[in-house]
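Incident review: delayed structure delivery

Summary: a single-chain prediction request sat in the queue longer than the usual turnaround. Root cause was a stuck worker, restarted by the on-call engineer. No data loss occurred. The affected request and its eventual output are reproduced below so the record is complete for anyone auditing the incident later.

Affected input:
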Amino acid sequence: MLLVEVEFKQVEINKVKINYLITKFKALGGEYNKIKKFENLMKENSELIKDKILGFSEEFNEIYCFFEHNFLTSKSTEEVFNKNTFKIVDFNLAKVIAHDQDVDEPYESWNDLRSSISKEIYSIIFRERINIKLFEEKINYLNEVIEKKIDDNNKVFYYFLDDIESDIHLILMATYVKYSEKLINLLLDAYKSNFFPCGWQGEYPTGQLCITNGMY
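Output delivered after worker restart:
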């Protein structure tokens, strides 16, 4: 809980970050008395802490609407992809490069790459004290919609359902906080053509996004 103590000593208290640290401390089996102490401090300081609530931009609403209504409603088309930017792979290779933490060259760890982008976005949320409650509520609803769209007839998308939900969360959160990143744009381009982004060939940001046809 040292990190929580440090946060409370800051001139400006970051409520989002403190809540995150307390939740993590709970998950690790932290001492009940310490948890209560810091939760009480949070209540005492609540009047001094103001979270920023962002509106949903036109760009956010357009992307959200795509996943809610248009995702999986058309056939996959390989012709739209620039071969210098995208590399189409089969399902078997996709399973390896998407989840293997020790994947061999020329591929990069896909989980590590996406996690690095996610950390950048959360750093903005912590720094700007952005309240993401409404955002998460919209995402939870969208996940329910996506799960109803995808069934075992879509072998690829069904197999990677958890990854898809994580990607959509990443895309929309980046858009929500106005974080611009090459990978976010490429992920969205892949999904708009019903392809699943499964890895990166090369050393990011150079190289190609690996994708596989999600409609099989």
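Verification: Strands lie at 86-88, 107-108, 195-201, 208-213.
Action items: add queue-age alerting; document worker restart procedure.
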